[in-house]
Amino acid sequence: MPETAKILQFPSRPAPALGALDALRSATAYFDSRSQDGADERRSRLLETPEVLLSLCALLRERVESAASDVLGEASDLYRAISTTTRRLGVFDERDYFLGETAILAGTASRFFGQRAEAEIWFDRAEANFRHTVNPTPLLAMVSYQRLALRCEIGQYREVAELAPMLATSFRRLNMPREHAKCIYLEAIALKQAGSHESAIEKFEAVIGMGISDLEPGLVGSAFVSLADIHAADGKHERASAACSQGLGFLAKAKRPAAMAYLKSVLGESLRRQGDKAGSIEVYGSAIAEYQALGMSTWVAYNRVVLAQVLLENGNSREAEWQILAALPTIEEARMVPEGFAAVALLRESVRQRKTNPQALSELRQHLQARS
């Protein structure tokens, strides 16, 4: 019988593999020096060590919330560097994987800033590249999660409430507990925004009870804050205060500045409903400052509108006008309301006449709240 088999040369690595700790140190050093001269040359050398690049992607993922601008810039530059390089990257599917990973990082950071059209394009790029990897199923599921979060942000709550449990089942079968919990949390957010408070409370409590506080303290803390928001809206201020206190510890542990800012806005609303206008104004001002520090302009604009409403109720009409005038450019530039939304035009004219229209302000807040 003729011998027809052929022994193929197994591809070898261009350099010895680094240990996990050394790779993390190199990734951290690279990220910390990103703004110095020679960044392009260092980025090019980085592509020669997939282990360091993998650690860098993990580092960027952890810093999306606290340094979203830096993550967006670095992930975008990495994507372009990988897509244009002619050298081999890794041994198997590393090139496709890292193109997908940097794209989803850039998309997540874009979504964080409210740049939804840009985020969608990045998610398209991530999906296209992940499809060529050896095991695309969990990676494509992560893109689906980001797209679902995007749909939630534009107010498609019914669709998110329907689809999130299906995606949660996929993550559970893939043995991805963090992503499984995030899907349940996303479903709870959609239910909350749709006004189904009892169902939302059940889902938030499910997230809290999943035993993932060590893995995802920020998610558990955010669930507590969302519960506080519901309780405050329902006039259950003691429960709201207790939930805020419980969430605070988890958020401090997770170092989630955006969630901490959201907690302050929830507390501000609770104080407003209890009649403590001065306390509410102070807390909302603090939340706005934190959102500004994070570069979250759409959240800054939304909270300025809410603060303006509290200021009007407290008789501080001139201060309310300042907040409105500061918020309107972002609202219009980011297309946070439909073109020609009557409340915006009415509000702008009333402020121009130095007589702010409370009804127009209330309508604008309700519209923004439904999509915040």
**Count of separate DSSP helical elements:** 18
| Strand portion | under 5%
Task: Specify the overall morphology.
Answer: globular
Based on secondary structure, the structural category is mainly alpha
- Radius of gyration from the alpha-carbon trace, in angstroms: 23 Å
Counted beta strands: 0
Largest sheet: none
Give helix and strand order, one letter per element, not per position: HHHHHHHHHHHHHHHHHH
* Cα-to-Cα separation, first versus last residue: 72 Å
Q: Uncertain spans, ≥5 residues at pLDDT below 50?
A: none
Query: What is the mean predicted local confidence, pLDDT?
Result: 88
- State the helicity in percent bands: over 70%
In short:
With 372 residues, this protein is mainly α. Helices cover 74% and strands 0% of the residues.
Structure description:
The chain is mainly α. Among the domains are: 18-31 and 39-134, no CATH class; 296-372, no CATH class. 74% of the residues lie in helices and 0% in strands. The protein has 18 helices and no strands. It starts with 19 loop residues before the first helix and ends with a helix.
Summarize the helices and strands and which ones pair or pack:
Elements: H1 20-32, H2 39-46, H3 50-62, H4 68-84, H5 94-112, H6 116-130, H7 137-153, H8 157-173, H9 177-193, H10 197-208, H11 217-233, H12 237-254, H13 257-273, H14 277-294, H15 297-313, H16 317-333, H17 342-352, H18 358-369
Helix pairs in contact: 1-3, 3-5, 4-5, 5-6, 5-7, 6-7, 7-8, 7-9, 8-9, 9-10, 9-11, 10-11, 11-12, 11-13, 12-13, 13-14, 14-15, 15-16, 15-18, 16-17, 17-18
